[in-house]
Design a protein that fits this description.
8 strands, alpha+beta, about 25% helix, globular, binds coenzyme A, Aminopeptidase, 4 helices, eight-stranded mixed sheet
């Protein structure tokens, strides 16, 4: 079965990481990462290959959801993680950032997640013209909480064991005169 995709082809480049849209060839690795780290996600089910393929088919049809694969700059061969911007509401100017994983343990703690979050948020504000991006993180997930705060997100609320963080677009300065 073939699918036409309505995804943007955005490639986001930072000093240490490059983000490119998720492709079908990434699915085995992203499923592995998702299953290895399911304790940190609100949907903690083990994802089978069939489930992952079905999710991807639906994902390709949604224009309000983009998953990026994270690479180290200069290494297009070996992805180190994923991140997503989803529930994009152009009219409301809002979206959620999540599905964040840095897969290989030796790639963690190097600031890749913080940089990836900032790239996605800047893209959401600058290219999509959104005004607010939120994230939902478990209150025990210190690495994720710190990564979002490093990327400019602030605590908005705590609901049970979920922390809601938020980043807002900076209003461009008014031209003089
Ligand atoms: C959360 C995650 C994406 C962070 O990735 P990362 O690239 O290691 O994050 P960064 O290097 O940008 O740094 C995150 C911050 O958390 C800190 N940190 C890393 N691991 C930590 C841990 N186990 N406990 C507390 N702080 C931790 C880092 O030191 C850094 O803070 P600092 O610069 O103030 O020291 C990664 O740990 C991961 O994939 N975890 C499993 C999946 C997950 O939890 N996803 C998020 C779901 S909301």
């Amino acid at each position: 079965m073939t699918h036409t995709t309505i995804k943007p082809t955005a490639r986001l480049t930072g000093p240490r990481v490059v983000l490119r849209p998720l492709e079908r060839r990434d699915l085995p690795l992203t499923r592995e990462w998702r299953n290895e780290n399911r304790a940190w996600f609100f949907d903690g089910r083990v994802i089978t290959d069939d489930m992952h393929q079905a999710w991807f088919a639906g994902y390709l049809q949604r224009s309000n959801d983009i998953v990026f694969v994270i690479h180290r700059s200069g290494d297009d061969e070996h992805p180190v993680g994923q991140i997503a911007l989803y529930d994009i509401e152009q009219t409301a100017g809002t979206a959620e950032c999540g599905r964040l994983i840095i897969g290989p343990r030796d790639a963690r703690g190097a600031g890749f997640a913080s940089e990836a979050i900032r790239l996605v948020a800047d893209w959401a504000f600058g290219t999509l013209g959104l005004s607010e991006v939120v994230a939902h993180v478990r209150d025990t997930n210190m690495a994720s909480l710190r990564a979002f705060v490093h990327a400019g997100f602030a605590h908005r609320a705590t609901r049970g064991t979920t922390v809601v963080l938020c980043a807002r677009a900076t209003v461009p300065p008014t031209p003089e005169g």
